[in-house]
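INTERNAL AUDIT FORM
Audit reference: QA-55
Scope: verify that the stored structure record matches its stored sequence.
Auditor: D.O.
Record contents follow.
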Amino acid sequence: MRTDVTKRSEMTNAATVRPRLNALRWELLLLVWPAITLILATHTHLYQTTLHLTFRDIPTSWADSFRFPVVECFFWAALTPAILWLSARCPLFSTRWPRSIGLLIAANAATEVLHALYRAPLTSFVYPKMVAISFRGLLRLYLTGNALNDLWVFWTIVMVEQFASSYLRHTEQQKELARAQLQALTAQLQPHFLFNVLNSVSALMRHDAEAADEMIGRLSDLIRTTLKDAPAEVPLRQELALVANYIEIERMRFLDRLEFSVHVADEVLDAAVPPLLLLPIVENAVRYAITPRTSAGRIEVEAAREKDTLTVRIRDDGPGQKNGSRLTEGVGLSNTRMRLQKHYSGAASFSYRNLVPAGFQVEFRLPYRS
């Protein structure tokens, strides 16, 4: 039995794929068949003109050149939605392919008969100079003469739909997978962050129970924010408010030893960013730049728009990387890197470096959107 998650995923994929296939149907009707009609008419006219110049026979007008293409392409344009509809319900790239092929072959045969019945009454219009032939003779002529043409046109339409549908389903499945991985990374980050904050509460309990009690109250607000289901993106102002709440909790522990400032232009406060983007980096800054020292330390957050890029920098005045060694990424940094990679499909950058004479800086460069 399939799980509810699988069912929801398939329903989401179907709901996304079907509108795109409907768009494909109208594109074929409104663009492809008129274009084919024009190409066939132009080819016919040029061919007949060449024959006229060669053999000095009666020239063919443009109106006559359009007779066959208009009649032929109108038939296929009228039938295209039905073929696409049937093809969508007879997937060839699945375990049901034998049944699908059988149904499509039967539909192909029915199309050939329908095509012959359609063309026979219009013969005198398409070929006004053709010798009169009985209706039964015309049916036999069109059934045998158009068999290969009907075969390749019918299956071309079918395969266009099959490949388009398969590609769209694959694309949606990849998006679903990326969303699931992103949610897993966020879920991994939440307990990591909360564990570190609880350590801060534990440390404060030994020295100031009243302050620890107030910290627990603030922590409850933070827990509600971090554990609730968040959308794929949130406004930057919401992330800054979350960071400010966390800083207030840590200030109860470090008092005047923790200095925090934000430099963000008003125009970027509504910029969209992934949830819990800033918090793990600020938490790392507190852990490595503030906690080990007895003197005051500073953490700064700044954000600005540079054309179509949102640049966010988080810096501290701590020791940075010792001896210029390569930083070992913990859960916070490695998780952030992977989330950005998956969320923006490589369009975002994430970097960090030592500052001179002291300090450490983490920088995000994200596509700007609001």
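Auditor finding: record pair retrieved intact. Strands lie at 234-235, 258-264, 272-273, 297-306, 309-316, 349-354, 360-367.
Action required: none
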